[in-house]
Structure formats: C-alpha cells, structure tokens
Amino acid sequence: MIRFKNERVISFSIKYFDVYWEVSPTTEDLQEYEFYVERSESEEGPWQQIAGPLIDRYHVRDNNVPLRSHNRILFYRIKALHVLSGTELYSKVIDRAGKISLLAQEMIRREDVLFREFVGVQCWLFPRRTFGQRCPQCWDDVLQKRRQDQCPTCWGTGFSGGYHYPIGLWGQVDDAEQTEQVTMEDHRQVTYHTFRTGPSPAIKPMDLVVDHLNRRFRVFTVGGTTRLGVGVRQEVKMVIIERGAIEDSIPLKIDASSVRLVPEREFSNPHTPEASQSASMSTLFGAYGYK
Ligand SMILES: [Zn+2]
Q1: Rounded to whole angstroms, what are the CA distances from 11 to 3, 20, 23?
Q2: What is the per-residue pLDDT for 96?
Q3: Which domains are assigned to the chain?
C-alpha cells in the first residue's frame, strides 16, 4: 500500500484553497490508484467528497470554499482507492495551519497528559454547522430566517442536522459561581465558565460543549497559544445553556456504563506496591491503565 506524505493546504486568495499531497517513493503502479479529496468543517467528519477520482494527480484547487468567516476552519483528507483490490487508505487530516513543529508537539503531549491524568474531565464537542443545507423543517427562504426556536431537525442552528459528529475530548472546566437573576418573566441562571484543552478538536465560537455532568455550554470566545501559526492549546469562554433549551434534547450516544469521566489515577495510589490491593503486577500496571 502506498503512503501519503507532505499533505498541505495553501492559498493566498479567499476564493480557493489549493490542496497538495505526495506519495512516498514506491514500486507499486500508481496508475492503479484513484485519489479523492474530502472536506469537512469538523476534523472528525462527516466528510464530503469534493474531487475525484483523480489518477496520478496530486493537486486539487477547491474553488467552492466558504472563506468569509474567520472562525470557520476547513479540514481536508485524501482518500486513495486501490482499484483492483478495493483497498482504501486515508491521509492525515490537514487544515490551513499546516504541520506542527517538534516543540509544539511536545508541548501538546505534555499538556495532554495533564488533562487526561490530572486536571481534565471527559467532555464532548459538537462542532456547529455554519454552512450547507438549510433546515428543511424550519427555514423560511423568503424571510431568510428560522421560524421555530425548538426545531429538532437543526437544533436551532438553521442548518440541517445542526452539528457535526460529537468528538470526545479531555479538558479542564473551571467552575463558576452560581447565580440567579430574577426578572418579571422568569429566573435566569447564567454562568460563564472557562475551559482549556489541547488544540484538537478545533473549537470555534457557537460550538456546543457537553461536560461530564451533562452541563451544556455555548462557546463564545476561543483563544489560546500558537506556535508558528499552529494551535498548541485552546482557552475557551463559554456560557451555560439554560435548562429546557433545545440543546438539551441533542442526543449524546455514548456507552454510559463504561465511559471514563474523570482521571482514574486521581482515585488510586499506584505509586507504591503496598498501596495496591494485591501484589500482582498485572493489578499494579492496571492502575496505569494497562490490561
Ligand atoms: Zn430547523
């Protein structure tokens, strides 16, 4: 099977993106491969095929890109199909930001340990759709707006489906003070939370974050650290969504009986053999997650 290398997205225009890729030197006949380029607004998909089949071509100009928003990130991946055997192979997922430097990789790795083992909790990100098919149930083409607040087809986003596939991530949620604002009509419990996590999955304003307590948050700012233009960490400000909003109905399909919500190592002391319940080495390693 061939191997992709040097995949990249480059453009100095807001009208198109140029996607390039290469294949490592091989003795295989490259004429037997078809390449397809796929694009998504979320790095975990769903993916849309934008070009292909391409034979012995290693460049695509995607001139149907919605580039008017600074917050929208487009991800690409290249699929190679070996026509004779039907075998498929995917490249790395790439975006405009490009490759991660060695120093940045190490920063991300260390912070990932921090989030997974010490300070983070399991969260899920629902990347919001910002373009595509309008909601067939509530979108009014004449008024150019939604007619329904509690629409279960677009979850209030105006785009069919509302969100891309949810992505699990470990991040630190800072708790905020509880508040209660009493108005003539209702009680509001608006709390602002800060959240930090690694650079992937990319979070953008208006995305939905669900934490391990099923608190649901709307992201309104995302900042963080970058190295040579590539994100190393994301600092997010988000506001809790009032109970009963349509976002509460969005199903999160996970296996609740086995999901790990907080770092297990925080609740055991595997650092000495005495602390282990049994002297067995397998138990000892088990505390570190080995099976
Ligand atoms: Zn709708």
Answers
A1: 24, 11, 21
A2: 87
A3: 4-90 (2.60.40.10), 102-128+163-260 (2.40.10), 264-291 (no CATH)
